Amino acid sequence: MRIVLVGPPGAGKGTQAVRLAEKLAIPHISTGDLFRANISQQTELGKLAKSYMDAGNLVPDEVTIAMAKDRMEQPDAENGFLLDGFPRNVSQAEALDRLLDEESIKLDAVLDLEVPEEEVVKRIAGRRICRNDSSHVFHVTYSPPKQAGVCDVCGGELYQRDDDSEETVRTRLEVYHTQTEPIIDYYKAQGLVVTISSLGPVDEITQRALEALKREKAENK
Hints:
Blueprint: E1 2-6, H1 13-24, E2 28-30, H2 31-40, H3 44-54, H4 61-72, E3 81-84, H5 90-102, E4 109-114, H6 117-125, E5 127-130, E6 137-139, E7 158-159, H7 166-180, H8 182-188, E8 193-197, H9 202-219
Parallel strand pairs: 1-3, 1-4, 2-3, 4-8
Antiparallel strand pairs: 5-6, 5-7
Subcellular location: Cytoplasm
Function: Catalyzes the reversible transfer of the terminal phosphate group between ATP and AMP. Plays an important role in cellular energy homeostasis and in adenine nucleotide metabolism.
GO molecular function: AMP kinase activity; ATP binding
């Protein structure tokens, strides 16, 4: 299957992308991983992207698109892929359509993870990270530490990252609504959007997504 995964910050896209890609035996292609790989390998695209990032500028769409094209042409993506973080806007979606048309292949589905805005704020703004080890993550509501402000694992101080503050989260949501959400309507016009709730246990969401994708594939046969 060839799938695009969309949803607001805090919808659990990263978690579900990894799980779904494994279940469907297709590569998980995330823009974050693409950028890190190209920059660390010092590819021409990576050097170009880094030059924009070092200057504090956004990486142009054409660079992101070129990275995605290169990754989708790798042998492990021959039978499908799951795109996470790309396309991020309508112009990228249009460019993806052109790329796929050139290869005479089509997307099977656009999986939209739906979550209420206040839940997004609660999920992200409630996160607390250990200063000693950032892999130790807690949540004031869903997975609180035994002692407030103290890491259960190593006793380090727990803190809220600047980009997890409520104000920043609401700004990120506004960017999502303005830039990324329009691609849902773009793909709805093609009959590709499958919307599921991203509320509940992680396993349940994964199962919900797999069942929705299975139905979509059966209906489009």
